[in-house]
Design brief:
about 280 residues, mainly beta, 7-stranded mixed beta sheet, 15 strands, about 35% strand
Length: about 280
């Protein structure tokens, strides 16, 4: 059974009787990146600061301030040699998230652990797919890399659900578990029931029997962390209209080097809510 490491306190208040829980005390040993976005883009675990940050502004967030995306706005960080973000074998992305409807040409990149010998997909990418203009929700897309040793090197997973409402804050958790080879999505502390084709990840297709589970991820040449942009456009010469800029908001973005348990996800959400004034 997974144990939760929790301390009841406000982020900046040690009083244990105020009914608040510091979210950073959930799965502390596995927290490898944390972006509060309170007026700047500093990351607090590895002390990362962006080498590029054009057009980024900060607005009132779910807690304090939040990242505000826009056309041509993005953040780029160089990962140090010993960064744990370079060698994730499982992952959890957790964040307060708000986005307008994605329709027409642009498909925005939200978050990416990149590799500069492949500007396009990198090692781990969270993006949004476009939907029809009549839609009132979002389609989430995640790509992550296994290795060249398997038939399905890149895992592309798109999933839409009416609970991913546009222009509304939601606490979003995306994760992959190397032990079970499952990809899972949580919204506001509750697991979204997807389907077998979304959740179960394999090394090969239906023509291989039995189908081997994907297992641990294996990133290649991970060297940067990118938020808000397609790198072929923000760092290269691409001008494709479909390479969209993320125009929504991010707040309290956390990366873990494991798949959180359902109890940890719920505890993280409850702790986040406890901090909201």
């Amino acid at each position: 059974m997974t144990s939760l490491t929790m301390t009841s306190c406000k982020d900046d208040d040690p009083n244990p009787d105020d009914g608040k829980t510091d979210p950073s005390t959930i799965a502390t040993e596995n927290l490898v990146a944390y972006f509060p976005f309170d007026g700047d883009a500093t990351e607090e675990i590895e002390s990362l600061t962006p080498t590029m940050m054009p057009g980024v502004t900060y607005v009132t967030g779910r807690r304090g301030q939040a990242y505000q995306g826009a056309d041509n706005a993005h953040l780029l960080y160089t990962l140090p040699a010993n960064s744990k973000l370079k060698s994730l074998t499982s992952f959890t992305l957790a964040m307060w998230f708000k986005s307008p409807l994605v329709t027409g040409d642009p498909e925005p990149t939200v978050f990416e652990i990149g590799k500069s010998d492949d500007f396009f997909w990198g090692n781990l990418k969270f993006a949004l797919n476009r939907l029809d203009a009549t839609a009132d929700s979002l389609q989430l897309k995640v790509f992550f890399l296994k290795s060249d040793a398997v038939a399905w090197t890149g895992q592309h997973i798109s999933y839409s659900n009416s609970v991913f409402v546009t222009d509304m804050w939601m606490h979003l958790v995306l994760m992959y578990d190397e032990v079970t080879s499952k990809y899972m999505i949580y919204k506001d502390g509750v697991k979204i029931e997807t389907n077998e084709g979304v959740e179960n990840r394999w090394q090969a297709g239906d023509d291989v029997v039995p189908r081997p589970p994907l297992g641990p991820l294996s990133f290649q040449n991970a060297d940067v962390l990118n938020i808000g942009a397609w790198r072929p456009k923000s760092e290269g010469t691409a001008d494709d209209a479909w390479m969209g800029w993320f125009k929504g908001n991010l707040d309290e973005l956390r990366v873990y080097d494991k798949a959180l348990s359902a109890a940890e996800v719920k505890a993280l959400y409850d702790a986040e809510v406890s901090q909201i004034e």
